[in-house]
Amino acid sequence: MYQYRQALLSMRRGDTDRQIAQTRLLGRPKLSQLRQQALERGWLESDSPLPDDALLAEVFGKTRRSASTQSPLEPHRQQISEWMQAGVSGQVILAHLQRSHGYTGSYSSVYRMMVSIAGTRPAKATVPLAFGPGEAVQVDFGAGPMLHDPASGKVRRTWAFVMTLCFSRHQYLEFVWDQKVATWLGCHRRAFEWFGGVPRRVIIDNAKCAIIKACVTDPVVQRSYAECAEGYGFRIDPCPPADPQKKGVVEAGVKYVKNNFLPLRTFRDMADLNRQAREWVTHHASERIHGTTRKKPSALFVVERSALLPLPGIAPDLGVWQPVKVHRDCHVAYERALYSVPFRLVGQTLWLRSTDTLVAIYHGHHQVAAHRRARRPGERLTVRDHLPPEAVRFLSRDRQWCQEQAGKVGPATLELVTWLLSDKVLERLRAAQGVLRLSEQYGNARLEAACERALAHTSPYYRTVKTILAGNHDLRPPAPDYSPQSYAATARFVRPAHRLFDDTSLTPQ
Questions:
Q1: Phi then psi for 387, rounded to 5 degrees?
Q2: 3-state class of 269 per DSSP?
Q3: How, if at all, do strands 380-381 and 349-354 pair?
Q4: Distance between CA 139 and CA 163 in Å, rounded?
Q5: The overall pTM is greater than 0.90
Q6: Three-class secondary structure of residue 506 per DSSP
Q7: All residues at 6 or more sequence positions from 10 whose CB lies less than 8 Å from its CB, including other chains
Q8: What is the three-class DSSP state of 331?
Q9: Which of 50, 230, 245, 312 is 20 to 30 A from 193 in CA distance terms?
Q10: What is the per-residue pLDDT across 284-331, written as a single tens digit (0 to 9) for each?
Q11: How far apart are CA 505 and CA 509, in angstroms?
């Protein structure tokens, strides 16, 4: 109200309304109104005190013009206010009012009501966060350009990883294909190497690659990211859910990248995109006068660099942890590849830790398996000792092993096993293994005698050898030689030996 006080002083000096209006304090209509009030209240008397600002505001303050008509949404004001507090948009409110309350007005009426309700609420006070050199960085992802992915042969969305130092506003920018845990950890490593040090605190949002459970007081950090923080020595500071203002530095940095780097540029591939991004950060983003600090980020970074924590002498082995379940085939699946674990853990949930070259699997705190990283999707990496004993025996006792073991037992056993393995129609590997396994119970000598008797009777089968041994027929003297052809061809119980062997040898036809 200082204009009114100055105008009153001019009126006391005898200036006319036209002269006062030329000074642009007030217009002539208001000056006329002021002079009338001053005459009625005696303010123009030289010996009377000037009115204070409160009284002038009471007399000349603006009065809100009452609306000529009441809004049809006035009965729903309280309900609309509650919906606004819950974060419901105006379009959803309009649709609900039309559907449930028969509202026939337009969205403009709903918008005016929302503005009216918002104007009655007290404004929220904010406090800008101040950071010292090397104290903190803020990290976020932002959408990047569409590029052709040679791995999939499709055009895919890229993502911009932005890490901004809170003191100097110097930033690291890298474009990636996804927001997976391994990508997140790799970007952190390259960003710390770009800065030449590690900040004491990393402020992030609640991305799944970093935070498993978002919470204001007790967030749950992803195991891989916690291991990264421990290896580099920084503390993770996740923002409260739905409160991105807590990392406004990097939010502004992401917008700066979208508005100043991406427009009017073309990129051949991901390598070209990141090359241009590094050049832009080095020669443009770091050399501009920042709107908040009013200094170049590169100049402030010279001060901040010495305050960063030193990089570890040996870079931490950043591994991705993931719970996996052991399937019935004694393997776990990870990144479309299969890795074996001991068969006794079938059905249990284990922890898998993967790096660029190694996959390790843990049960509790103990490592139970380790494999090289699969080179292609669908690859199955199996350690034979992880399989059940019966499976190991079957897989280890192949055809070559069977023939070698049969040769150690005797010539008859070798001949019988060779015939079983040379069948052109039926796979008889298990039968050969079963014949050799009989030596564990009856010994090599009796097995050799049983095989010789089975061959003599032209019945070189596992069941025949087992029956001979079980009935102790191998201990009896050998039967007199006979010729199967001496029997009538029409005899009911004659075995047609010519179908198994020829007349000169026991070689299967």
A1: -85, 160
A2: coil
A3: unpaired
A4: 5
A5: no
A6: coil
A7: 19, 20, 23, 25
A8: strand
A9: 245
A10: 999 999 988 899 999 999 999 999 999 999 888 888 999 999 999 999
A11: 10
